[in-house]
Amino acid sequence: MIEGGATLARRLERYRAAANTLTTRDDGPPVAIPSAELADCLAVATGGEVVVTPEGTVVRCEVPARSIPIDRARLATLPGQPPPHVPLVCLDTETTGLATAAGTLAFLIGLGWWEGDRFRQVQLLLPDHAHERALLTALAATIAPTAWLVTYNGRGFDWPLLVARYRLARRPAPLHAGHLDLLPIVRRLFRHRMDDARLRTAEAQLLGLHRFGDVDGWEIPGRYLRFLRSGSADELVEVVRHNDQDVRSLARLLVHLEVRLGDPDQRAEAAPGDLAGLARAFTREHRLGEALACLDDATARADSAGPMSESRGRHDLTKHGEEPWWSPRAPADFGGVPGRALETLGPPRTAAFHVPWTPERITIDRAHLLRRLGRYEAAAEAWQSLAVGTGRTAILASIELAKLQEHRLRDRAAALHTALHGLAIVERRRQLGRPEPALEADLRRRLHRLRRNAAIVARRSVA
């Protein structure tokens, strides 16, 4: 309740600050400022140029191209990445709200693309609502039909909003060959070592970049509204800088993926959690051999770094009194099925865990993958290493090991022994006040079937 109250207090404080700044300077009615004057003020403040077209006026800002080399062939070896020959267009919008309905529009669209090793950036600004058609036309001219879009949460917000604006203008949205949204990629690969999923956090914790004096996203709609009312574009200068950094960060995140994970030598030195997340991404594309190589490297890295206990993950889960963003109970989708019960120990493509990556979790994914590859002996060894404990994971590992021994290795005697071992752990946990009724029922059904089959085999041998 204390944390929730503090959050509500901060939201109310922001609302009051925004409301105070939106009050007019006098008691008279607002005066409409001509669009041409707004465009000139915006161009002067941002260093852009006014572009007048038959459909309206836009302000175009372009900064000198920066050197951001990227090896597209190496990037394409990673799962979910575009082919090396297609152009990439990084896109980020600043809008008048956080919805994608008809009442929200994009007043600033930042674009970036590579020309060789140079990264070129252009920003399109809307001086007034009436000139939106000119902005949409300029955007359509920048996106080639063969290009892939690169965004951060663009599938969920930026692009649906732009599509809605094109539909309201009774025009088709620009065609493009694909859409690479970096948000789910960052969540899948790096959630174990990030505080949240914001682009600013990814910059700081993955790229080592820290912004100073940056504008918060909740302030941006109010700043644009005050510009329309007053004609002063001073407050939008920081918004333009914010958007410029967002677009450039998209390019740098792609370079980070290419260098750290696309290069096999660099990949072997990556954090175990990064490798485990990459293995799941490979698995989703049925590239099981590459996924197994990542898990092997992750296991070696985890062993060299020392054990990471499961209890530490549970401590992190609740140390602030609220769910972290990577928790399955938090409303973040990072590739798993939200709310899936942990005891199912489903295959890696659907499992969502309550704790960050640990050597134990990596071994679980590796055991599942070995089974899918048909390497049953190796999978049994992996499950055997997990079944020697005394916790719930040991019970689950005993069940999985018994399945392999019974159905794949055809060793029913070993399966019976493993099931008895798992049941002994269940009994011990029940004596400690930690019953596992679902797992106990599974083991008892398995024992009953194994004993019945053993009896049938014995009678047939006697006969």
> What are the secondary-structure elements, in order, as H or E?
HHEEHEEEHEHEHHHHHHHHHHHHH
CATH third-tier fold name of the largest domain? Nucleotidyltransferase, domain 5
Proportion of beta-strand residues: 5-15%
CATH architecture of the largest domain: 2-Layer Sandwich
Mean of pLDDT:
85
Number of domains: 2
- Main CATH class of the largest domain: Alpha Beta
Question: Main beta sheet: strand number and arrangement?
Answer: 7 strands, mixed
Name given to the CATH homologous superfamily of the largest domain = Ribonuclease H-like superfamily/Ribonuclease H
Q: What class would the helix/strand composition place it in?
A: alpha/beta
Strand order of the largest sheet: 1-2-5-4-3-6-7
Any key phrases for this structure?
Nucleotidyltransferase, domain 5; Serine Threonine Protein Phosphatase 5, Tetratricopeptide repeat; elongated; 463 residues; alpha/beta; 7 strands
What is the structure about, briefly put?
The protein has 18 helices and seven strands. The chain has 463 residues and is an alpha/beta fold.
Question: Mind explaining what this structure looks like?
Answer:
Helix 16 (392-408) packs antiparallel against helix 17 (412-431). The protein has 18 helices and 7 strands. A 7-stranded mixed β-sheet has the order 1-2-5-4-3-6-7, with helices on both faces. It has helices at 2-21, 35-46, 72-75, 132-142, 154-168, 182-190, 199-207, 220-230, 234-262, 264-268, 272-284, 288-305, 310-318, 359-372, 376-386, 392-408, 412-431, 437-462, and strands at residues 49-53, 56-67, 88-95, 106-115, 118-125, 148-151, 178-181. It has 463 residues and is α/β, with parallel strands linked by helices. The chain is elongated and about 100 Å long. Mean pLDDT is 85; it is low at 21-27, 307-326 and 331-355. The protein folds into 2 domains: 30-262, 2-Layer Sandwich (Nucleotidyltransferase, domain 5); 299-462, Serine Threonine Protein Phosphatase 5, Tetratricopeptide repeat (Alpha Horseshoe).
